[in-house]
Amino acid sequence: MLRSARRARRARRIAELRAPELALVRTIVVRAGSVAYASNAGSGTLSDVGLGVGGQLTSLGTTETSAGTVDAAVAANGRFLYVQGGAAGTVDTFQVGVQGALTKVGTVTVPGAVGGEGIVAL
Question: Taking the model in full, what pTM does it have?
Answer without folding.
Answer: 0.74
